[in-house]
Amino acid sequence: MGQHTIVMIPGDGIGPEVSGATRKVIDAAGKITGARFDWVEMPAGEAAIKTHGDTLPDVTIEALNQHKIGFKGPVGTPIGKGFRSVNVTLRKKMDLYAAVRPVRNLPNIKTRYDNVDLVIFRENTEGLYSGIENEVTQGVVASMKVATQKACDRIARYAFRYANRRNRKKVTVFHKANIMKLTDGLFLRCAKKVWEEEYPNIEYEEMIIDNACMQLVKDPTRFDVLLMENLYGDLVSDLCAGMVGGLGVVPGANIGDTVAVFEAVHGTAPDIAGKGLANPLACIMSGVMMLNYLHDTRHDESCRDAAEKIKAAYNALLTEANKATLTRDLGGTAGTVEFTNALIEKIK
Ligand code: NAI
Description:
The protein has helices at residues 15-33, 46-52, 58-67, 86-93, 149-165, 183-198, 209-218, 230-244, 281-298, 301-320, 336-346, and strands at 3-9, 36-41, 69-72, 98-104, 117-123, 127-137, 140-146, 170-175, 203-208, 225-228, 253-255, 260-262. By secondary structure, it is an alpha/beta fold. The protein has 2 domains: 1-102 and 245-348, Isopropylmalate Dehydrogenase, CATH 3.40.718; 110-242, 3-Layer(aba) Sandwich (Isopropylmalate Dehydrogenase), CATH 3.40.718. The strands form 2 sheets. Strands 2-1-3-12-11-4-5-10-8-9 form a 10-stranded mixed β-sheet, sandwiched between helices. Strand 6 and strand 7 form a beta hairpin. It is globular, with a radius of gyration of 20 Å. It binds 1,4-dihydronicotinamide adenine dinucleotide. Residues 14, 18, 74-77, 87, 247-248, 263, 266-272, 278-279, 282, 329 line the site of 1,4-dihydronicotinamide adenine dinucleotide.
């Protein structure tokens, strides 16, 4: 089977801990299935300022353009001042327009909710994340929300195509087009058009975002595929993560037409960074998404097999519910390393 070069961006805070764990797990599974990976480490985030004088150095962008697949740990962004978000810049520069975030209950992770099985599609390149802000006059600032037909169309098409391929029954579009009549209005119109013209076989639903949040926490099982613009996707992802055990268990992918970068939903978790306490599972699950993507796009069976082995291993580990091998966010006592080693033991 082929060898895949992965651009590895370790990131800040817990990033190096959880992305390092993921690399070990993927290599262990690949050893068994014959999938081989060459990890090219590239800088981004606060760490890159020290080494390259830039939060997103050109070498990182060039490597992603060359190898097409990235795996990224979280990177920090200063609040209310400082440099522009590396994530926003990366997603825009590489045109990673679809954030895909599956949210499901996992074995023995008890929450208030059962049978949660959602996939969030977040438009990843515009909306209020465009970062176009200005001071109109002293004491008055403005932030511009941008929506383009091209971006609204392609994220809608991506979500419906996914729903169709995976036999999902319904796509619900979250919006606030009653207030943002132009921007969210365009998002809604594009989604509806894609549904009507290309996927009428799938159930389509529109819901105002405030009501949607209430409906989600009341009964998430009434939803299936969720489609929304950038900021709503950011908020709803964390809200949904809370339903299935928190940010330690929700993976993600940023997909473009030619390049894809995989990363968990969570951030740098400054409160636990460097303490060896982070749960690497969300990151590892993002790695499983990467392996499945490699199978889908490069038809490498050994990647799909590696994904299946990792999935079976973490399901087995969670089913055992042994406190000594679960991280603290899941009620256990294990650190990142203990969890990772226990998981690797289960890969067969
Ligand atoms: P956060 O996701 O880093 O942390 C929120 C809470 O969840 C904290 O209590 C943290 O300890 C916990 N948590 C997160 N990941 C965990 C894990 N793997 N295991 C166990 N506990 C975990 O969100 P916060 O505090 O809002 O953001 C911190 C920084 O991360 C900010 O600079 C933010 O800009 C950045 N960020 C980066 C992202 C990325 O690079 N994709 C995504 C989200 C935030």
